[in-house]
Amino acid sequence: MAAPPAGPGVAPPFAAPPTEGRSARLWFGIGAGALAVLLCCGGGGAAVVGLLVSNVEAVREQGRAVTDDYYQGLAERKYAKSYDVLCDDAQRRESRAEFERRVAAEPQIDSYRVGDVDPTTLTVPVSVTFNGGNRGDQQVTLATDGQTGAMEVCGVS
Hints:
Strand order of the largest sheet: 1-2-3-4
Largest sheet: 4 strands, antiparallel
Oligomer: single chain
């Protein structure tokens, strides 16, 4: 036969539930969770920074290339090449024939040096040497084509 249940006044086998190791397990769990969050967010943050850096480098590279194409066309007197890299707004303001007449009447470019693109303002400094040895500094303003995403020359000052 089974023993009758203990009655009032009987002491439990221990006074309080065991706490040995409970706080250590809690802190280990919190630390593991924090590490997982740090790895996930840190990896995502590194990816975002990587994308931003590569995007800035792409803007600089495309900006230099399109500016070089523009000035190369002017230096070689292949004005259609320069006109083709103008943004849509610039092409609306001036037809190909008007552009070719205007740049043919301006001092001819012997050489040029394209500076570094400023990715925040989308401008490029260009040092130009004209026929006869005169020199000048010009500032090219760039824009991104809304349809193709390519960089284009939108103005020279």
